[in-house]
Amino acid sequence: MSKKTREQVSTVVRYTVLILVGFVMFYPMLWMVGASFKASNNEIYSTISFLPKSPSFQAYIDGWTATGNPYSLYLINTFKIVIPKVIGAVVASVVTAYGFSRFEFPGKTFWFSILLATLFLPQVVLNIPQFLLFRTWGWTNSYLPLVVPAFFGAEPYFIFMLVQFMRSVSRELEEAAEIDGCNSFERLVYIVVPMVKPTIVSVALFQFMWAFNDFQGPLIYIDSVKKYPTSLGLRLLTDAETGFEWNKVLALSVITLLPSLIVFFLAQDQFVDGIAAGGVKG
Can you list the domains of the chain with their CATH numbers? Predict the structure, then answer.
């Protein structure tokens, strides 16, 4: 077998394996979409095929108001949490990372070590003290406990990622801008931020997806059904005692996934660039 033939065979084998693995990974989502068009639980349980016998949008129509409120209410509530949380995480992470990467101040190494140490704290350890604190402030049954911490650098992973990338930005560019009269804030906005834009997009996407899918946070702090995000609104369809219709649950799950998928595909180029850059910088 010639070298060219071996390379061709190797390429065919690699792509065949990748296609098979990709199909296995993608099939659950494909099945979810197909099952949302099925008529009943019996049809869903009867086969693992994603193709419905008689496709119908009835599950989407009935599921939209099955909780007693239109599902749009939960979507709007979700964006009330997600949008300010993304803005807060991006702004706070960029400013904090710029401070650690560009300025010298007493205890810098110590405070950066403390910041990294918080990465190893599981959220379950923080839930009780945070709840007691926010309850004392009267923030329960509101979105404040979910949103406000993001504006104070509560996402150490994002700060760490941005610090590594900002350290690779040439200081000569900032020095030239300083000679031209730019202060620290102007240098951050006009020099550093454009150069770390892919990483900032990655931060925004990560925060968007994490906040959009957050279940535990809203479950702890929000009591009113009218304020539920999609994660809790979707749970209202599931009743372990009386049973529930899976096609409605899956139909609303598909609707819930759409914003994250749309945002990801719109920003995927910047996201990939940011992740790739973060893997080689620092």
Answer: 3-61 (no CATH), 67-280 (1.10.3720.10)
User: How far apart, in Å, are the Cα atoms of 40 and each of 28, 47, 50, 201?
Assistant: 18, 12, 13, 41
The per-residue pLDDT for range 64-122, each reduced to its tens digit, is: 988 888 999 999 999 999 999 999 999 999 999 999 988 888 888 899 999 888 888 88
Please report the pLDDT score of residue 125 as a whole number.
87
* Cβ(198)–Cβ(270) below 8 Å: yes
DSSP annotation string for the chain: --HHHHHHHHHHHHHHHHHHHHHHHHHHHHHHHHHTTSSSHHHHHH-S----SS--SHHHHHHHTTTSS-HHHHHHHHHHHHHHHHHHHHHHHHHHHHHHHH---TTHHHHHHHHHHGGGS-HHHHHHHHHHHHHHTT-TTSSHHHHGGGGGT--HHHHHHHHHHHTTS-HHHHHHHHHTT--HHHHIIIIIHHHTHHHHHHHHHHHHHHHHH--HHHHHH---GGG--HHHHHHTT--TTT---HHHHHHHHHHHHHHHHHHHHHSHHHHHHHHHHHHH--
Closest by CA position to 198, among listed 157, 161, 170: 161
What angle do the packed helices 197-213 and 268-280 form, to 10 degrees?
A: 110
Q: Which two tokens stand for residue 228?
A: 């539920």
Cα separation of 220 and 192, whole Å? 38
Global pTM reads 0.84
Q: Give me the residue label for tokens 């409120």.
A: 69
CB 88 within 8 A of CB 150: yes
